C-alpha cells in the first residue's frame, strides 16, 4: 500500500467514526497525514495536538494489526510528541 492509498484508508475510517475531538498527525517518511478534531483528513503538515512519528511500513503494520502499538512504542518504532492520551484514542479509530 502506498502513501496515497493509506491516506484514503484513513480518510474512510475517520469518516465512519467521526472526529476524535483532537487532532492527530502521522509524520511518516513519505509525508504527513493529519486527522482533524472533526474527522477531516489531509496531507497538510500543520500542527496537531498529538504527532506520531512512524515509518510508512510500520503505520501499515499498525493499521493491519500485524504490529502491536505498545511493542512498536517500546522498540522506538513510534515517536509520540504532544498529548499521549490522544494517541491512545487511535484504538477507537482503527
Automatic annotation (TrEMBL):
Domain SCP2: 33-94
SUPFAM superfamilies: SCP-like (SSF55718)
Transmembrane segment boundaries: none
GO cellular component, one term: cytosol
Pfam families listed in its UniProt record: SCP2
Name of this protein: Putative sterol carrier protein
